[in-house]
Specification:
The structure is a single chain. The protein is an alpha+beta fold. The protein is 22% helix and 38% strand. The protein has helices at residues 4-13, 18-22, 53-69; strands at 25-30, 33-39, 77-87, 95-105, 109-117, 123-134. A hairpin with a 5-residue loop joins strand 5 (109-117) and strand 6.
């Protein structure tokens, strides 16, 4: 199911970031899952004309970050601490779709699986990733407490 309002909010949030350059679009966000798509563009291809593995990994990681954000308390942030991607089939054109699913939610970490498929519903890549949830910190130049 396509949710334009979710994608519009996402596009505003990523404005001016590396994720914006990627050109991905969110389709659906729920508690413990995220679905999105990435149009294959020339700028995202490697010299052999195939979608670059780094673009696929960034797309998958961005889906995970979006999904993790739904679990964060006010002021918390997150960072990826590990990911592994297996690439199955190359992609030359079209659009790839991704679905991230939370497999584990702990107090400080989450584990996700991301499946990337092509227009023929072939499995392009499978990613497993772990993220760390970070509590708010004082800015580095904050004045000492009174």
């Amino acid at each position: 199911m396509d949710h334009p309002d979710v994608n519009e909010r996402f596009q505003r949030r990523i404005k001016g970031t590396f994720t914006e350059v990627l050109g991905m679009r969110l389709l659906e966000v729920g508690q413990g899952f995220v679905r999105g798509e990435l149009p294959v563009r020339d700028i995202l291809k490697q010299p052999y004309g195939l979608l670059h593995g780094g673009a696929i990994a960034t797309f998958a990681d961005s889906l995970v970050a979006t999904g993790t954000g739904r679990f964060l308390a006010l002021g918390q942030t997150m960072t990826t601490i590990e990911f592994k991607v297996n690439f199955m089939v190359p992609v030359k054109d079209g659009t790839v779709r991704g679905e991230a699913t939370a497999l584990h939610r702990g107090r400080r970490t989450m584990v996700w699986e991301v499946r990337i498929t092509d227009g023929d519903d072939r499995l392009v890549a499978l990613m497993s990733t772990a993220v760390m949830i970070l509590d708010p910190q004082e800015p580095p130049n904050a004045p000492p407490p009174s």
